[in-house]
Amino acid sequence: MSKILLFSLIFHSLFFQSQKLNGDLQFRKNDKLDQKFSSEERNRIIYNILPIKDSEDLVTIRILFPRQIIELRKNKNNKYFGFVINKTTQYNYSKRDRNELKNTVEFFQKTPIEEDKIKELMNKLILSDQNNLPTDSLIENWNRNYLHCNKVNFQFKTLNNIQEQEYNCPLQQDEEKQTIKIIAENIRFVQSQLKLDSIYSTFENILPLGKSYSYDGYRMMYKLTKKQNEIREKYKPYREYLKSHKDSIDHYLESFIRNINLKSKKINCFETYHLEFSKKGNLKKISVMDSDKPKLKDALGLKDFLEDKKEIRRCKKVIREIFVNTDLSWLNLKFSLNRSISFDLYGNPQLSDNTIY
Q: Mean pLDDT across the stretch 159-170?
């Protein structure tokens, strides 16, 4: 490690230390310089976890899931200790522009593991020979053609012997193969014995309200404030009523999309459009999210800005043409309803329902 990088690491460790919020929940505001560090260095800075090569214990096993880190150790006095770290990233956006990310904050919680459980897990992993199994790139016909599935890393250090394995989408493989079966069984055993889903739910429950969180940068969770929860409960009958008619409404509206040919329109609709329908099914309003609206500061110039606004007007006109003859009076709906529509690269419209029922 270069002297400059080592100094940066020490500086970050001292001046960007994590802070306790309440109980054992901790947080640390991320810094732009964090991107220069490896995942091992980030784990040292944020979670105070040393690289496994620096472990002085007889046996150290580290398992890294996207949202949790499991540490299992046996020291030179044959004492066992370990912990689970639950972790997630809080995303804070600008109030003026919900598409502009202001900063991110790491939230985490360390939960100790009972000694008997550590022994059981270590014995299972070592006796199954997990530490000597190949990484996924060395396993024949390992399938990596899955989107947004989890990755699991195993790290072992026994005295000075270090083994590491990485498995992308390990629970979506062909488990008829013995090696893959062992890997999958070990992962499920760890998840089950430590009740990882349960303790992560407990961790999520104590995160601050009114914020967005993600443990992998893809799956987003927003925690409602107390007031927002009250509003959600107030409109629960409304949501349940519309949910009971959802399939009929979706099938009906999608029939208009299937029956229209937009190839001659030559449109470039890259935004998501919010649609509001009346109780009778008439299209009342079309709007574009603020984050999708053209902004002069982001445009190449005034001409480009005005052209973007003109294109949105054209897209709205096309959407009105699609739903000009909609009529849901046969359902006798009690409430109005909302849907969203977007277009793929070929101009094909796709209807979606963003209601959280």
A: 94
**Exposure pattern of 198-219 as b/e (b: 16+ CB <10 Å)?**
eebeebbeebeeebebbbeeee
Give the tens place of pLDDT for each residue, 50-87: 999 999 999 999 999 999 999 999 999 999 999 999 99
On whether the CB atoms of residues 341 and 267 are closer than 8 A, the answer is no
Question: Among candidates 120, 96, 101, 260, which has minimal Cα distance to 190?
Answer: 120
Measured at the alpha carbon of residue 10, what is the angle toward residues 9 and 14, in degrees to the nearest 5?
120
Query: What pTM did the predictor assign?
Result: 0.74
What are 160-169's contacts with CB under 8 Å, separation 24+? 162/52, 162/53, 163/131, 163/132, 164/52, 164/135, 165/130, 165/133, 165/134, 165/135, 165/136, 166/135, 166/136, 166/137, 167/135, 167/136, 168/136, 168/142, 168/144, 169/143, 169/144
Q: How many Å apart are CA 141 and CA 125, to the nearest integer?
A: 24
